Amino acid sequence: MGDTRVLVVAAHADDEVLGCGATMARHADMGDSVHVIVMTDGVGARNPPNLSSLRAERESAANSAAKILGVQKIEFMNQPDNQLDTVPMLELVKIIEGAVARHRPDIVYTHTPQDLNIDHRVTCEATIVACRPQGGEDVKKILFFEVLSSTEWGVGVYDSFKPNWFTDIQNQFDRKQDALMCYSREMRSFPHPRSKEAVESLAKLRGSACGLLKAEAFFLHRNIS
Fold first, then answer.
1. Is pTM, for the whole model, over 0.70?
2. Is 197 helix (H, G, I), strand (E, B) or coil?
3. Burial of 141 (0-12, 13-18, 19+ CB in 10 A)
4. For residue 9, which of 80, 109, 98, 137 has the smallest C-alpha distance?
5. Which DSSP letter does residue 160 get?
6. Which residues, listed in sequence order, are joined to residue 10 by a DSSP beta bridge?
7. CA 225 to CA 223: how far, in whole Å?
8. Does pLDDT of 58 surpass 70?
9. Is 168 left (phi over 0), alpha (psi -120 to 50) or beta?
């Protein structure tokens, strides 16, 4: 059994599966504990008249996906969707610091700072601040994941995503796809990047970069051995 503690910090429910769903399943298969926090409700920006019901539906989908992947617990912070840049950074940092204090992760996965989506970028920054080195620090590794329909659409001043860490997900990929189907409202038909076909194509592409059949790719921001 593993003894590694994992925390995933995602901006929206479905980002965690798109970014590192199979890797979370692999951690769970190894006996590691996996926890997820979702910073926004993921639906508020659409100004729906039935916000509460859509929020409940999204949370139900996230819980179903978490169960498939072996996640121990997923928590919802319900910050404003696509408006995290309007929330004081200190408030966001305190939310993530709270999760770090509760779960004492060895490894933290979060968004890459190159993403097009503002919530992704702010979440990444807040996570780095919350996990800054200090006395008694437990976080030994921070990895940035990519999210189809945001990372590849990053523009202009942001460098492109250049992974330097790969996880073999051949045995967990089908569960990632099953978990994504819990988010049927968010998935699209090919050739949209948030489609089953595109997700599989990316897994094969990342695998081909390191001699694997399928992989999830990350950028290693911190590694303390």
1. yes
2. helix
3. buried
4. 109
5. P
6. 38
7. 6
8. yes
9. beta
Question: What pLDDT, in 10s, does the model give residues 129-147?
Answer: 999 987 766 799 999 999 9
Among residues 19, 1, 6, the alpha carbon closest in space to that of 216 is found at: 19
Question: Per the structure block, which two tokens stand in for 81?
Answer: 């969707």
Q: Which residues pair with 145 in a beta bridge?
A: 111, 218
Contact in structure between 131 and 108 (CB atoms under 8 Å)? yes
Alpha helices in 48-193 (DSSP H): 51-69, 89-103, 118-130, 173-181
DSSP one-letter code for 45:
G
Within the chain, strands assigned E span 5-10, 33-40, 73-79, 107-111, 141-145, 165-168, 215-223
Please compute Rg for the chain using Cα positions: 16
Measured between alpha carbons, how far apart are the two ends of the chain, in Å? 20
Burial of 111 (0-12, 13-18, 19+ CB in 10 A): buried
Lookup: tokens for 139: 């976080």
